[in-house]
Amino acid sequence: MAPRGQQAVEIADDVHWIGALDPNLRTFDLILKTANGTTYNAYAVRGAKGVAVIDTVKEEFSGDFFTRLEQVARYEEITAVVLNHLEPDHTGAVPELMRRAPQAHIYVSQRGLKLLSALLKDELEKYVYTLTDTGDVCDLGDRRLTFVNTPYLHWPDTQCTFLEDRRLLFSGDVFGCHFCDERLYNDLVGDFRFSYEYYFKHIMRPFKRYVLEAVDKIEPLDPLLIAPAHGPILRDNPLDYVRSYRKLSNSYLPNEVEGKEKSLLVFYMSAYGATADMARSVYEGAGEVEGVRVSLYDLQGGEIEPFVDLIEGADGLVFGSPTINGDAVKPVWDVLASLISIETRGKLGGAFGSYGWSGEAVPMIEDRLRGLKMRVPEKGPRVKFHPTEGELVVCRAYGRALAESLAGKTRPKEIDLADL
Amino acid sequence: MAKGKLTFTDIGVTVNVPAGTRVIEVSEKVGAGIIYGCREGDCGTCLMRVESGMEFLSEPTALEDKVLKENMAGKDMRLACQAQVLGEGEVKLRPA
Ligand SMILES: Cc1cc2nc3c(=O)[nH]c(=O)nc-3n(C[C@H](O)[C@H](O)[C@H](O)COP(=O)(O)O)c2cc1C
Ligand code: FES
Ligand SMILES: [Fe+2]
Ligand SMILES: [Fe+2]
Asked: What ipTM does the predicted assembly reach?
């Protein structure tokens, strides 16, 4: 049953695993680690009218893939090549597969077309392709594959493919993990629970909204078997893994600030206390606005990871930093560089800080916040050295204005472009 | 020079702008909720909904049209990094 040597493995009637094992991999996509390597799972489904190949492998493993594929099908029998995800770890063998089976019809999601053309370049025009959406079908004669569009899990193109007669879901990266064990099935391999959650946190977490939409589409299919593109094939309680995606997509922290109330976090760093004084005034000003819960944190006293969890659940973030050697201070950048694993799009952002002569920190932070797809409604205050009473009043007003913007209480205003 | 008005309804801000101004040049400065990726009409991140005054925006270029189609955009949608104000009228917009 295990893929000893280079055997294809039948995982359901006329459905074979034809992927590759990569036990020595330790870092994947630069952003995550794996203690157990990974697998690139590809599959072949045979029907009365031909064979569908679902995904391939990373290019350097093409040899294993073609060896296994050739055990279960001849190239001229391949009528369909289904690409659930266009990342190179699954499309490495696609160009060569299409050269060997040029008659095969490619099935790819609408958003995948651009990526497919970047992959196949000029060769694409030699092949036939169909752009898929939820409910579309690939007919293999006596059995059919239907497509489930699951965008942003974790690329724009991602989709799942469902083999109706076996209730088998080919899920791509979704429900996958980096764990290499040739026993292949979740009830036979070693303990991969950590790998499963870790994979979610690093790959799927920024796309929680889309995860919940996808789970809503997948649960009613009630799959008996989930065949992801990495790691164990889920045959024992497959729905548990779907449900765990729902659970992992809920907030990490119990929801204290709830309902209509908005949460605004003020972070700061300060060497001589000037930016700290500003931070307190911003915090107090924001606190005057009803419906906004404000919190104040000194970055010197915290660690990145809990801050990231806090930020994920917050509606607005403000950073106070002095300017040191023409830049904001490193702990601010450390936090701002650690937000790729959560969604920041649409949150409110702001920055303020004390400086001596050039004051670059505030605009640099504001640009970064915009780069994180946050909206920055107010120009942040900068103060030379220690703030005066009057300057603290400005900081208070700034905090209030941010909180009002969060609470949707800003009065309509009209301005000229030149005044911005 | 002809002037137009851009109103970002999500934040309630109206800006008077000269003809030829792109929405992107204004929306970030006022902190409206429209967001950007490539900033050159390729990725579709900056999709926005035009609530009124579509006639006071430049026609979409072939490139913008293609990206709008790829993103299955409705008739009232445009790319904020591409659309330019023609002047003489008010355009009301918000994030898509
Ligand atoms: C986890 C992950 C996330 C990605 N996110 C984006 C993205 O948001 N926007 C983008 O344009 N490309 C994105 N990419 C695509 C990479 O930039 C692209 O594959 C690139 O060619 C990789 O270059 P490299 O071979 O030098 O690593 C992402 C790739 C990975 C692996
Ligand atoms: S930002 Fe990419 S299309 Fe406008
Ligand atoms: Fe991927
Ligand atoms: Fe993958």
From this structure: 0.89
Interval between CA A39 and ligand 4 midpoint (Å)? 9
User: Can you say whether residue B90 is alpha, beta or left, with left for phi > 0 and alpha for psi between -120 and 50 degrees?
Assistant: beta
Domain ranges of chain B: 3-95
pTM: 0.92
Q: How many CB atoms lie within 10 A of CB A48?
A: 10
A106-121 tens-digit pLDDT? 999 999 999 999 999 9
Report the CATH architecture of B3-95.
Roll (3.10)
A133 touches chain B (CB under 8 A): no
- The pLDDT tens digits for A287-322 are 999 999 999 999 999 999 999 999 999 999 999 999
State the fold for domain A262-419: Rossmann fold (3.40.50)
From the list A148, A174, A167, the residue with the least C-alpha distance to A82 is A148
A346 vs B: CB within 8 A: yes
Structure tokens at A141: 């004669």
Ligand 4 center–CA A66 separation, angstroms: 19
Q: Which of A89, A135, A138, A85 is nearest to A108 (CA)?
A: A85
Q: Give A196's pLDDT tier (boundaries 50, 70, 90).
A: very high
CA-proximal residue: ligand 2, atom 1 (nearest): B39
**CA distance linking residue B63 with residue B60, whole number of Å:** 8
| Candidate from A348, A373, A378 with C-beta closest to B35 | A373
CATH 3.40.50.360 domain residues, chain A: 262-419
Mutate to test the pocket of ligand 2, among B28, B35, B39, B64 (most ligand atoms within 8 A of CB): B39
Does the beta carbon of A363 lie under 8 angstroms from any beta carbon of chain B? Answer: no
Residue B13's closest chain A neighbor by CA? A413
